[in-house]
Every structure is written in C-alpha cells, then in structure tokens.
Amino acid sequence: MKKILILGLLGLSSLYAMSNLDLAKNADKKTEGFGSSVSQTKMILINASGQKSIRKMQMNTLEGDKGDKTLSIFISPADIKGTKTLTHEKLDKDDDQWLYLPALKRIKRIASRNKSGSFMGSEFSYEDIGTQNYQKFIYEGNATQIDINGTKLYKSTRIPKDKNSGYTKQILYIDTKDLLVRKIEYYDRKSELLKIAIFEDYQYIDGIARIGKITMQNIQNDKSTIIIWESDKIKVGLKDKDFNKRELKK
Amino acid sequence: MRTYKLTLKILFVFLTSTPLACFELQHKGDIGLKGTYYDHNEPNIDYTQSELRTNLELKAQLQNHSFALSLKSIIDKDDSKRRYTNINELYYKYASENYDLKIGRQIQFWGALEFYNHTDILNTKDWLDNPNDNDAKLGFNGIDYTYYFDDSEISAIIKIGEQKQKIKSPSSINSIYPTPYSANIESKRDIYTPSLYLRYTSSYDQLDYTIGYIHGYDSQRYLSNIAGTFHQNIYKSDKLIAIATLISGDMIYKSELAYTLSRDTQISNYAQASFGTEYTLYGIYANTDLGLLAEYYNYSNQKQAKIFGNIFDNDIVIGLRYSLNDSASSSLLAGYMIDLNDQENIFSLTYDTRYADKYKLNLKYQYNSPKRNSIMKDLQLFEIEFGYYF
With left for phi above 0 and alpha for psi between -120 and 50, is residue B50 left, alpha or beta? Predict the structure, then answer.
C-alpha cells in the first residue's frame, strides 16, 4: 500500500515538472507572432557614482522563422543622430550586419560574430540586445519552482550555444502564471555572477506580451542601464524590403 | 559676419521655397571651435590656426519626396581666404518602390578601407578645410538614378562640372601647392562636360562587393604654370573599380582596386590597389575594446610627362582604436603611416569624448617625418576641438 502511494505521488509530481527546453519554448511563444514592430526606446546609463546619461533610438523589427531582421536608428545623443545598424539574424551562422555613418554617408559591413562587446557604452551587450530565440541555447534537465516575495517562479538554466558568447550560463526566473521572464542572472566566462536583468512593465498588444522596461545591473562594477520602451507598435506591416541596405541611406 | 549672413539667406530661401508645412522636418548640426598649434622650423609660416566651424543639415520629407540641405561654414581667425560657407548638399530625391532618383548637389562615399579610399572619387576633397582630412569633401552637382533588387543595386550617376579646389593662404603650414595658385581649372574641354559613373553593388553571404565604371574627368589632377600662376588641370579618362569587404569570423578583409585609362596623351594609364584588415578584441580590460587595423596602398604608372604627388603609392598604415565603452563614448585612436619607398612617416594620436550628451571634445597630436624636399612639412601639431551638437 505504501509503495503504491509513493509511486502515485511520484507520478503526480512528474506531471507538474517541466523540462527547461519545454519551458523555454512555451515562454518564447508568449512573445512570438508580432509580425513586425516599430519601437521608440530610451536607454538610461547610470555609472557607479549615480550619474545618468540618456540614449534614444528607434527599433524596427521583422519577425522571421530563420531569424529576425532589425533596423536600429539612433536619435540621441546628437552627435550620433542618424547612425543606423541593420542586422539580418541567422540562427545557424553569423548574422549579417551593417553600420551607417551619416557624417561620412558611408555604409560599412561589420563583423557580428563576437557579441560580447558593450552596446552604446551600456551594461547591455550586443548579445543581450539581440533576439533571445530558444534555439540559441542548450537546455538540460527540468526547471524548478520557487517562491520569491509571494510570486511563484520557474527557475531555469540555459547555456549559450555560441562559443563566442560572453556568458557561461544564464539563470532565468519565469512567472509560472504567465510564463513571462522576470529576471535573468548572467554568469561570465569565469562562471562568476556578472549581471542581473529585471524585466518589468509587460503589456499585451493583440494577445502578444511586449516588454516595457529592462533594468540591467552589473554586479561587478556597480553600473546599471535601464531600457524603457516609450512606444511600441506591432503588426505594422513591415516587409523584407524595409530591411535592405537601401534603408540605411534614407 | 558676411559668411553667416549668407548662411542665413540660404536657410531662408530653403525654408520658404517649398510648402514645408506639409513636410516632416529633420535637422542636425554642430557648432564648435578648433585650435591648432604647429611646432615647425619653416620660415614665414604661421604657428597657429584657429577657427569657428558650423555644420548644418536639414531634411524635409513628404511620402516619396524629400529635399535635403547640408552646409559647412568655417571662419578662420587669421586666414581671410578660409572664411566660407559651402553648400555641400542641396538636392531633391524621389524614392519609388524600386528606385531612387536624386537631383542636385550631393556627397557620396565609395570605398571599403578606413584611412584612405582611392575609389572615393565622386567628390573633390575640400583642401581649404583640411588637405589631410580625406573625409572633408565638396558636394558635386549631378543626377543619381539607383535601381534596387532584392540583394543588390545598380546606379547610373551623371556628374556635371568639376569642383575648384581652393587652398589656404601661403602662410599656412597646410598650403601644399606652389604659389601663386589659382583655383580656376584648366581643361581641354568644358569643365561642365558631364562624367558618367556606373556602379553595381551586391552582397553574397559574408561578402559585400561593388564594381564600377567611370567615363569622364579623372579624379587625379596635375598642375600647370600659366603666365606665372599655377592651375589644376583635369583630363578625360575611363576607369574601372572594384571594392570588396569580406567578413570571416572575427576578421574583416577589405580591398579597393582601380585601373585608369587616360585619354590625355601626356598622362599615362595607372593602377591603384589597396588592402586592409580589421580585428577587434572585446573586453580586453573591464568593458573596453581594442580595434586593430592594417592597410596597404599602392599606386603605379608608366613614365609620363606630368608628375603627380600621389602620396599613397607604396604605403602602410597601422591603427589602433581603444574604446572605453563608457557613457561618454570615449576612445583613443593611434595611427602610424609609412611610405615604404622613402620612409616618410606620420604618427597621430587622437582622443575623443562626449560631455553632458551634447558636447564633444577632440584632442589630437601628430608628428610628421618627411623625406628631403617633400611637400609634407617636418612638424608636430597639437589640436583641440570643442563642439556643441544639436
């Protein structure tokens, strides 16, 4: 009788256990299906002394099965106004990436393999800014359930597939109710905690979850960066031709 | 003062000549002060140069139509020849679904390398600004029709008129021509005879490439002495160019090739080839990056009647860019160029940073080590530039 009870309890618990891979796929589905989007973002850089610096940009994104396409247009500071980057993401190889320098009227092809570099002097790397498609990571084992301040979360670990990644692993905290990412811990190449990102202010547009604010705190240097989405429109009808090199010169 | 009155007049005409109330207007610009001290032993040559600089860009767009205006204004404190306003861009552009048509004065960039681009030939360099700055250009007048395919584009450009190159006063260290000099161009044909530029650009995987053909006035000019005054002379040529950028892992490889068939019996055909490579080390210390750059330039021609002072004939450039990746986007750029024929060399060090998101500070040191009887002067220069950006 006792054996039957124990086996029954084990069976019940396995029904509620979710693999890290399945969790990642289900979490991705919450933010998929936007087609294309145009967002205005503000990035606040905060140094260790608390001084702030502002960056503003517009991001146009086209969702794709084999990778997204993104056109970023820098609006401020004034000296980089009009600078643009165009990225054609490739899930199975290096992205195609170009940079437009308006003062020189020059389109420059740039290397995209190493994404560990800082994005605009912020605590976000290019890797952090890029899409977080689950296919870019390795998942093993099951997610565990924890409770933080009354909120039930899945704790899940993923390892970047890219050998040039700046991280050895990332630990995600995903809300069990809505499967939205609330927090990520990033571990550097020495496997030490490097940064913590807090995800807030999600909004639902046409049933698709859209992030409103991300705060990235660098634990090792006391600097932080906040990205705020000041406006966000999805299903705006952008097409492939809106992400050609021609768009850089406009 | 006259220069700024002219600038305001140009702005007034631009703003009132189109029904701009319906257009989406964009602007950007900067105003700043630049001061340079030259440490040299040249007789009768100034030791300092200081100037007020202004750049202004305006763009008005309504659906497929746009107008653009770009001005550069320099007021030199001491050199009266160097007080001017240039309209470098003033054009109308129609953007259809598959093509762009641009009519008017414009600036374009053709090339792949970082320090010097011998294929960047559409615009004449602005030597009155700075003969050592390859990015200082004069707008050309022309019509550009570009048709876009999925991954490529083809352009046909007609350039009308060749720009005069004014130079600084003889007392300037950067007055590189013999005097007396006149900016009026000499030519066997009308300088407004159009030149045709054809260009095909495409991408394949990690390769971007451009093939071009030019029939018209050559970008290379020679000097002649007419009644005791030196003039630039232009001549006709046919030119083939090829430009490529290849990304291989973390490395970037670049090349620019050109072959010019001269149509002037006194000028020989010539070939130019440049190669470069670039690599970035990320996070070398804290959050900083180090960019490494190496470029080689070659120019070769047959013996000919005219002598050209092409300084990029067998030269190597090595550059380092140290990016602090701080909130001020500070960076340190070091460059060393050496002519393998005669060991003439230049070293420069530049520091760039931003203050309060609106101001930029640029500090530069340069050391020239010329060969004997070179047009380049033996000197050190110390430069500071501070600007407000809007």
Answer: beta
